[in-house]
Design a protein that fits this description.
With 143 residues, the chain is mainly α. It contains 7 helices and no strands. Helix 1 crosses helix 5, helix 2 crosses helix 4 and helix 5 runs antiparallel to helix 6.
Length: 143
């Protein structure tokens, strides 16, 4: 079954709302992807080519196919999701873990990194630009 673009947008909006209610803990995937692209670029690889390889393998994800391909390597940074909101969501998840006595060191690190990015780039910055706060490497593609 294939969804129409309108159905896909509605489903994405519902999913984002559900993730927002629970806290966006999976956001660390974007930081790991940015680090991998930065390492490859420092070795002379083109981020667009790296993403093509990832997107034809089991590493493919929303982050690699949509966020990095459409917004990071193009320099567009226009997903429409505010960095401050993502940092808030991850903070909620960290608070929930703490409130039930769960030690979550990975989550604590994720929360600190997204909070640092929001503090450095501003609440309203697009979340796809967060790598600018974490890494000195320009991740735009040479294309």
């Amino acid at each position: 079954m294939t969804a129409t673009p309108e159905e896909a947008r509605a489903a994405n909006a519902d999913l984002r709302a559900m993730m927002g209610e629970r806290g966006n803990y999976f956001a660390e995937i974007e930081k790991a992807a940015a680090e991998a692209l930065a390492i490859g670029k420092e070795f002379g690889l083109d981020p667009a080519v790296m993403l093509d390889v990832v997107n034809t393998s089991t590493g493919r994800s929303f982050t690699s196919e949509v966020v990095f391909t459409g917004d990071v390597i193009t320099g567009r940074y226009g997903t429409g999701f505010a960095l401050g909101l993502l940092a808030k969501d991850v903070g909620i998840a960290a608070g929930l873990a703490e409130s039930v006595g769960i030690s979550a060191p990975a989550l604590d690190l994720v929360q600190r990194r997204w909070a640092e990015a929001a503090a450095g780039l501003g609440f309203a910055a697009d979340h796809s630009a967060a790598h600018k706060q974490w890494l000195p490497t320009d991740l735009t593609s040479g294309d």
